[in-house]
Amino acid sequence: MSLHIGDIAPDFTAETTTGTITFHDWIGEDWVFFFSHPGDFTPVCTTEIGRTAQLSAEFSKRHVKPLGLSTDGVAEHMDWIKDVNDTQNTRVTFPIVADPDSTVARLYDMIHDHESTTAAVRSVFIIDPDHKIRLTMTYPMNVGRNFDEILRVIDALQTADAKQIATPADWVPGSKVIIPTSITDSQAKDLFPQGWTEVRRYLRTTTL
Questions:
Q1: Does 45 participate in catalysis according to the annotation?
Q2: Which pTM was predicted?
Q3: Can you list the positions of beta strands (E) in the chain?
């Protein structure tokens, strides 16, 4: 199944390290950072699970729930978490989905046969409170994710939703934003009373 931005994230019920969840119910009114791993007790995955736990306050203040997935069972996950806590100097509290039969991994197209026919690649899905997929990223098995970018893109999505703007290349919070071409100058006067710079007719920048 190929999933695209704007699609409703498929619902599922699964065992996790914090109990059984039904995904859409579990989301509640929050955003979700859903990310998959090839397997437990693997070095790159261990650093990623650890980094997610270390950033728990950053995810929380953005109203984002992390949800991991690995194609192993709950017992293996629980043992692995002990290693993650020890080696990464953190405490993992977010759930990790147990997916030993790859049901959820295949539902989310996380199994790429040229990488492995059983293990999930490093997929990322950012999902909003309406259960819509807002961003997807896929990393190969041997490349760890950039968590600065994951937080940055969550900030960009949430800011764009709240302020009706777009963000330029390399945007970070506090820097200039773009007024979309769908917004007329007349509308922009109400939305952006601080004014804007018209670089080109199609390129108007402002600050928030």
A1: yes
A2: 0.93
A3: 13-16, 19-22, 31-37, 64-70, 96-98, 122-127, 133-139, 177-179, 197-200, 203-206
